[in-house]
Structure formats: structure tokens, C-alpha cells
Specification:
Blueprint lengths: L2 H10 L8 H5 L4 H12 L31 H20 L5 H21 L8 E4 L2 E5 L7 E2 L6 E2 L6 E4 L5 E3 L11 H7 L37 E2 L6 E2 L7 E3 L2 H7 L5 E3 L1 H10 L5 E2 H4 L3 H4 L1 H21 L2 H6 L17 E2 L1 H9 L1 H20 L1 H4 L21 E3 L6 E3 L11 H17 L1
Helix pairs in contact: 4-5, 6-8, 11-14
């Protein structure tokens, strides 16, 4: 008998708590008779192969359909009795045997059925707001999600669950009233800054030997619950609030240029994920020495500086506006606003070389438009007034120097900031003096 046929036969036996006919025929047989027959029925038929034991959880056949009529308390009691019998049989059977594995599968089916009876599907609102979380009711029937509150599997086929649209917190409907942690996105909006000390541990005694989030008693010995340290906050959490997720720690990146993921608690994991694209790191203030040891950072800083010099050409060029050239940096908007703020994602992409490749390509496209493709932008170039030779110069050219006062452009070999007088500045000074004398 194949596995599907065995399950169909299994649901028709006395192990099925909803088949009450034979029990009524033998009112004095009691539970003992029911248990004995249930145990024998568990192993009727031939053995099944492991490939046929796949848990499709109701996709191929409806293991979770409700029988006709309403459930009563005795239905749940009989189902609990069948579950206990399954558990006893699993312990009695040889370890790792096919019969034991089949019984485990049937035990799972029975437990899911019991869960369905305890938590019948009710009409739930599509949107719920709790502690700044905006929970949206999920329609997915995936069974691979885990509840962030109770740390158990969300059985999408029979359980209602929600996801916060802000921080992606997943939760059973029945667990929502137990949530005590506000939405992380609100913290990101109001407090957009990282902890920049490396694993700032304060010790379990300062936490009163309790989880930093839910206040469950914890200890390093695992009694009554294991204490797990979050490498981002330095605090200790219980296994419900800390799932051994890993994340790249901003403080380790900035101070050590280290990108090895470390274990963090659930709330830190969500916070770091939401903060990753935000440009909140001013490296030249936090750790200016980093530019002396990381050549890639120097290259990126130069490219960003050049792009800021190109921006005035684009915002006054009709062709550039129509071509939307600046939108090539829409994923890194801060690159066209300043050259000193970085996001954690920027630093990760710099370390892998990904940002250098993409930014160099964009820089080449921008320079080509200004110097070759657009006559209007070409007309805004400069001629070196010191040597009056060579091609038209632009402030982003690598062989040029720019006057900090008037932004005039010269050959680098011709102009030195401290020793050379800018001809344009001199003319402007003379003009101002003439205007003052005329007013007198």
C-alpha cells in the first residue's frame, strides 16, 4: 500500500478522532480498547520509502479539512489521546527505522489538526497597528516562516499571521497582544545613528541577569535560559530574542575595516538592516586615518568629488536633464549632495570592489557628456590663463587645479595654491577697486 493510500486508510481508523461510530458500538470498551486498536492501526500495511514521506501539508490532499458538523470538547480529548499513543509508539520502535519515521509524520499531522481545533480561523482585520508596528495580514501559505514573538513555526495553511510593513516583524495573530517591542523603523526615523563602540558589554549583573529585551532570567550556564550576547549592543538576550542571526557590525568596519558578520539579537538585526542604506557615517570625523590605509576609499572620495563638480553642468543643461543623467545615482542620492557621508552599504560595496566599478562607469558617462557630447557644456570649460595653451579644461580633470576663491581652472603645473596669484581673482579685485573710486 502506497503512502497516500495508507494515510487515507489511517484517517478512516479509530485513530481519527472524528470517526466516532465504532466507539459508540462498544460503550464499555473504554479508552483502553480505543488505544489498543489505534496502536495496531498505526502500522497496518507495508513499509513506505523515505521519498514518499514528503510533508506536503495539505497541498496534495486535504489533511486539514474540517469534518461535517461542529467540534466539541471530546474531539480535542480524543485527538490528544491519539497524539500520546503516537509518542509512546515512537519511543518503543527501533531508532531510525522506517516505521518510526512514518509514525513521526503521522504525529505531526495529528498535532496540526489539534492546533486547528484550538485556534479556529476567525475573521481578522487586514491591518493592525500595535506599538508603531503597521501589521498587514499575510495571504501566503508558506510554512517556512517563524514567529518573531514565540519563536515557533508559522503554519500558514491553518494559522493567521501578520508582517510589519516597517520592520518586517512576523507574528502569529494570537501572539500580537504579547508584543512589547516598538517598531524598529520608528527608531531609525528618530535616531539615525550607530553604536560606534565595539561590543560595549556592560555585564549580566548590570542587566540583573535578565534578557535585555523581554526580561526573562538568563545565565551563561544556560539555567534557566541561555544568555546570548549581541555583538552590536554588547548586551545579553534569551534564545527567544536572540536567534544567533549574524550581521556586519558598523563599529568594527569603521575602526578595524572588518566585515566578518557577528551574532546579533533579532532587534539589532532588523535595525542594522534598515539602517544599512542610510548615509550617516562621516568618516573624516569618526576615523580620518582610515583613508591612509584603505586605497579604495581614497579613489571613491576622488570620484565623488568629481561628480559634485559635474553636477552644476547637468542642472543647467537641458539635454542632461532630459537624459536624466543624475538619476543614475538615485540609489545613492547622497553622492550628488556631499562627498563625506557614507552608508554602511557603501563601505561594504567598497570592500568588495563593486562600488568602484559602478562609480567609475558613471563618472566616465558624465565626463563624456560634458567634454564630448554636449556643446553647451563644452562652452563652460576653461582656458588656462597662465600658459594660455592646451585643451579646454574642466574642474574634474585629473591634471588641473581649481582656485578656491573664484573656481577658475588652470593646469596643475601652472597653478600652485600658495604661490601663484589667480589672474581672474586679480581682475575681480581691480574691478571692485575701480567701482569704489568711481562712487567717491
Amino acid at each position: 500500500m502506497e503512502y497516500d493510500e495508507r494515510l487515507a486508510h489511517f484517517r478512516q481508523t479509530r485513530l481519527n478522532p472524528f470517526d466516532r461510530g465504532e466507539e459508540e458500538d462498544d460503550p464499555e470498551g473504554g479508552k483502553a480498547t480505543h488505544q489498543h486498536e489505534a496502536r495496531s492501526e498505526l502500522f497496518s500495511g507495508t513499509k513506505t520509502h523515505s521519498s514518499d514521506r514528503t510533508m506536503d501539508l495539505g497541498l496534495a490532499e486535504d489533511h486539514f479539512s474540517r469534518p461535517v458538523g461542529s467540534f466539541v470538547a471530546s474531539d480535542i480529548e480524543q485527538l490528544k489521546l491519539a497524539i500520546e499513543e503516537c509518542k509512546k509508539l515512537i519511543l518503543e520502535l527501533p531508532e531510525h527505522s522506517e516505521r518510526q519515521k512514518d509514525t513521526v509524520v503521522k504525529l505531526i499531522h495529528l498535532r496540526l489538526k489539534l492546533q486547528e481545533l484550538k485556534d479556529p480561523e476567525e475573521e481578522e482585520p487586514n491591518l493592525r497597528i500595535i506599538l508603531e508596528h503597521r501589521f498587514s495580514k499575510e495571504k501566503s501559505k508558506s510554512v517556512k516562516q517563524t514567529c518573531d514573538k514565540c519563536s515557533t513555526i508559522i503554519w500558514g495553511l491553518i494559522q493567521t499571521w501578520y508582517t510589519c510593513t516597517g520592520c518586517y516583524y512576523r507574528c502569529h495573530s494570537k501572539c500580537m497582544n504579547q508584543i512589547t517591542k516598538p517598531c524598529v523603523r520608528s527608531k531609525v526615523s528618530h535616531q539615525s545613528e550607530y553604536e560606534l563602540s565595539i561590543c560595549p558589554e556592560i555585564g549580566l549583573d548590570r542587566q540583573d541577569y535578565r534578557c535585555a529585551e523581554c526580561r526573562t532570567p538568563v545565565s551563561l550556564r544556560g539555567v534557566p535560559s541561555e544568555a546570548r550576547q549581541c555583538d552590536y549592543t554588547g548586551q545579553y538576550y534569551c534564545s527567544t530574542c536572540h536567534w544567533n542571526d549574524t550581521a556586519i557590525i558598523p563599529a568594527r568596519v569603521i575602526h578595524n575595516w572588518e566585515f566578518e558578520p557577528r551574532k546579533v539579537c533579532r532587534s539589532s538585526k532588523r535595525y542594522l538592516t534598515l539602517m544599512m542604506p542610510r548615509p550617516v557615517l562621516k568618516l573624516k570625523e569618526i576615523n580620518p586615518l582610515l583613508f591612509n590605509f584603505v586605497e579604495e576609499l581614497v579613489e571613491i572620495r576622488k570620484l565623488r568629488h568629481d561628480i559634485l563638480l559635474m553636477k552644476p553642468y547637468f542642472i543647467t543643461c537641458k539635454e542632461a536633464m532630459e537624459a536624466r543623467l543624475l538619476l543614475q545615482l538615485q540609489d545613492r542620492q547622497h553622492f550628488v549632495e556631499n562627498d563625506d557621508m557614507y552608508s554602511l552599504q557603501d563601505l561594504i560595496d567598497i570592500s568588495t570592489g563593486r562600488l568602484s566599478c559602478s562609480l567609475t562607469e558613471i563618472h566616465t558617462t558624465f565626463a563624456k557628456h560634458i567634454k564630448l557630447d554636449c556643446e553647451r557644456c563644452q562652452a563652460k570649460g576653461f582656458v588656462c590663463e597662465l600658459c594660455k595653451e592646451g585643451d579646454i579644461l574642466f574642474p574634474f580633470d585629473s591634471h588641473t587645479s581649481v582656485c578656491h576663491e573664484c573656481s577658475a581652472v588652470f593646469h596643475r603645473d601652472c597653478y600652485y595654491d600658495n604661490s601663484t596669484t589667480c589672474p581672474r581673482c586679480a581682475r575681480m579685485t581691480d574691478r571692485q577697486q575701480d567701482e569704489v573710486e568711481e562712487e567717491k
